[in-house]
Each structure stands twice: as C-alpha cells, then as structure tokens.
UniProtKB/TrEMBL annotation:
<dbReference type="InterPro" id="IPR052019">
    <property type="entry name" value="F420H2_bilvrd_red/Heme_oxyg"/>
</dbReference>
<keyword id="KW-0560">Oxidoreductase</keyword>
<dbReference type="InterPro" id="IPR011576">
    <property type="entry name" value="Pyridox_Oxase_N"/>
</dbReference>
<protein>
    <submittedName>
        <fullName>F420-dependent protein</fullName>
    </submittedName>
</protein>
<dbReference type="InterPro" id="IPR019965">
    <property type="entry name" value="PPOX_F420-dep_Rv2061_put"/>
</dbReference>
<dbReference type="InterPro" id="IPR012349">
    <property type="entry name" value="Split_barrel_FMN-bd"/>
</dbReference>
<dbReference type="Pfam" id="PF01243">
    <property type="entry name" value="PNPOx_N"/>
</dbReference>
<feature type="domain" description="Pyridoxamine 5'-phosphate oxidase N-terminal">
    <location>
        <begin position="7"/>
        <end position="95"/>
    </location>
</feature>
Amino acid sequence: MSSVADVADAKYVLLTTFRKDGTPVATPIWAVRDGADLVVWTVADSWKVKRLRRNPSVLVQACDTRGKQTFGPEVAGTGEVFDGSAAASKIAKKYGILGWLTVTGSRIRRGADGTVGIRVRDVA
C-alpha cells in the first residue's frame, strides 16, 4: 500500500481537492516529502486553499508536468494549511535553482504572507 510520502518523491504531484458539491479539482504541483507527510507550497488565496479549508480530504498521485498523465496509485490523504516559509524552503531545496528562483520571485511579488504550505497526511 502506498503512502502520501511515497507520492511526494515524484517530481510532480496531482493534488485533488473537492468543491462544495463534491466535484474533484486536480492541480499539478511541486511536492516534497517531510517525514511521513507530503508538503506543497502555493499562493495563499488560491482556490485549492479555499477548498481545502472547507474540506480537508485530498487525493495525491504522481503525474507529469501538466497533470495529463498520472503514474502509480492515487492515495487518499488529509490536508491542512500551514506556514508558507517552511514549505518554501523545502521546495527550494528539492527543486534546485528553479525552485529557488520561483520561491524568491514569489516572495518579492507577494510578500512573506502571500504563500502557504499544505501538509498532506495519510488517512488514519
């Protein structure tokens, strides 16, 4: 059985959150393993964050850059929003110079509070 941490080892992860009516919305995103958890970094006022705050149920699966092709099993998890700076440093470390440029550019453009982290844990 796969865990969310196993999925986090992929270069890109399809993060699926759910609308009020239960419709799934999948977004390809960078992710990093943090112990037994999967961590992503995103814009604080994004729709995925709004959906996650209402419904913490998520699905994660390895995918290609655009999320069109998926690999491996889809894993159910529970997501929670947390401090963006901690998530940003993990993303920058995993994705090298491109990650660092993206994180730095975002800090300049959005400020320190413009991004958040999302921690996904395995469903208990």
